[in-house]
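User: I'll paste a sequence; please echo it back and then give the predicted structure.

Assistant: Echoing your sequence first, then the prediction.
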Amino acid sequence: MSKKHLFSSLFLFFFMLSYAQQEEGSLPLKTILEKIEIQNNIKFNYIVEEVIVVTIIPPKTTLPLFEKLKYIESKTGLKIKKINSTYYSVFNNQKLDKPLCGTLVDIETKLPIESATIKIQNTDITVFSDEKGYFEIPIISPNSIEISHINFEKKVVPFKELYVSDCPKIQLKIVVLKLDEVLTKHYLTTGIYKKNDGSIEIKPAKFGILPGLIETDLLQTMQQIPGINSVDETVSNINVRGGTHDQNLFLWNGIRMFQTGHFFGLISAFNPSLAQTISVTKNGTSAFFGESVSSLIDISSHSKSIEKTSSSISSNLISAEFYTRIKATKKAAFTISGRRSLTDFFSTPTYRNYRNRVFQNTVVTNLNSNQTIDINTREKFFFYDFTTQYLQKIGTKNELTADIIIIKNSLFLTQSISEAKKNSNLGQENLGATLNWTTNWNKENSTHLRFYVSKYSLVSKNEVVQSNQILDQENKVLDLGFQIRNSHQISQTFTFNNGYQFNEIGVTNFDKINSPSFSRKTVQVLRSHSFIGEGIFESENKNTVAKIGLRGTYFDTFEILLLEPRIQFSQALNENIHLEILAEQKNQTLSQIIDLQQDFLGIEKRRWTLANDTTHPIQKSKQFSFGFTYKKNNWLITLDNFYKKITGISTSSQGFQNQFEFVKTTGDYQVLGSEFLIQKNFGKFYTWVSYSYNDNKYFFDALQPAEFINNYQLRHAVSWAGIYEWNSIKFALGSKWHTGKPITTPQSTTLNSDNQIVYNSPNNSKLNDFFQLNFSASKDWKISDKIGLKTNISLINILNTNNSINRSYRINNSENTIESLNTYALGLTPNINMKLSF
């Protein structure tokens, strides 16, 4: 087919589509001109592309010719010039030597909107906006343009609005999802949202900048939220409202993650280049989530649409990473991401600071010996993570997704003394996979089915350099199951969700010593069946939202049924003040314990274990919170007050390093607290101050005293940040301050008659207050239309403050005295990152 015939066919096709959609009385301009030609015996010359986009109500046939032409000019913006008595030229008065294009921006922040779908209505022609929000339309059509994005309200734009001399900016409003309304979309920084169900949502693709962060590290970002801290500045020991790390449920695309950090906790294990969304729920968790007594951290990297192909590579002073998203067909796409450390290739100041921070008071630093012996130590360390995902849309109602994730840390240690040389190693790995099927039966009903498996392994071999003793240790977890979730919209204001989940968890722990000969292996398996119901009410004016859920779980091994009610309630008192009430009751069977502080080379000494309903009972939590959100004139103020009680905790799970280190008993802890945030936006500059208060106490009937301060209490915590965003340049300066971690001090510097340390009352003292000042900056560079470069720098602890984050005591056998072991936070640590997107 010739180009001329092809163009004519396309023209006829779009003309017919357009003609069927016209408002009553309006006609395509081409048709009107043809009628005028017949009525007035003249001829029009015009470019089809300049006429086809126009439809108007035709002028009255009784009008003289010059009136008809003036009418057409006034209605269309076109110009009509008389050539002679017979011929007239119709032309656009604007120069259009460019593709039809536009740029999508957020109506509030003016930031570009990436990966929006731009579709010519009633056709299969679809394009996507790039990272700058820019898009181009490949053909001319009279049909309107439909713009959609999962996070923004759909917008329909008449085609002629793009038929102008420049590329207009099109502003989109943040979407207000039913039952999932966003209270504020600029919480702390761009890309962090506070929702009316009390959860916080983080979208790295829209992320601004935060102090001290080189990239959008999800788990480091979490710690900017009031009430979320880490007593040892790691992402493998995140404490939400005074809870321990293992009491949080971490999910990645529905897969439970038992390992969350690289570099043994200093770096998040989730590739920051992957387009992920993290939802953090501190209270009022949906009934579809169980197996945690503290918070829910739900990470998703799924996209609602088949996005265009794009890739990125980046590197910093610790690791290098890549990401690629490939659009295979109109209904299929897959994504691959990977990251690997550079630490075993070369040593940077950043790596040395991280290394010194991680290996303090461990076998690597020879502190397994109380003797002054010159031991030569060399270590080789690396980590990597890898993900792959596949998305397939089947028809118009079904969708299939498959995901795989691999996370690994490896340490090889060589220690030598005189002629003796010993090799030790430590490996930590988490493998996960999930398969999801979603069917939207109609607008009111949908079903989601998920199969998942997660396998965790922590293996170490410790060859003691001063003897021939070898200690082998293993901790392995296998978690698998499936979940079905149904959603039924009963009316415009009420939705009912229900579902079922089967879960099986197996845990293996193994220890073996060659001298004296000892071997121990335990295997635990627990199966559970959960039945879920959840009703959601939302008033028509969206001022009132209530969600009430119930999760009932039956444990085969224990032959017991536990009920977990959940409540979320939010009420808009007026357009500025929003009231929030949350409550929940949850259970947890899997937890981490410490047998000995020297286990697993003293680096990752926690091991997973299952409840046995005796020495390790099922943990149970009750939590209630009451708060409000105020937003007006770029001011944001939030206040939350909460009560939280956890029963069935083990002393082994709390990290005691005092008189209770080897005591095995169970008890409770309860927390009373408040969290406050005040934030103000001044255009391109915004700042916030947050404060949290915790009164966190233990209750152990078998201990003396039975009531004392929790090991993870940070009674007062304050953070501040000031952020400036100007076009492609961003700066962030911020600080963290909190009271010191509780510690137990010895009564004397000498041992008692039994050569033991005599301690004061548990947690009778605390470390010095923690203070850290951090800085970050970033700059975006546009190399070409499709290639962009982003550079970041960060400085952690600018003032190089000497922050002690832990202190314990041991016996010096050679001098028969007591020594203190201090662990310190990172000193001044610089980092740089460069990311190339294409």
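The chain has six helices and 52 strands. The longest strand covers residues 420-440.
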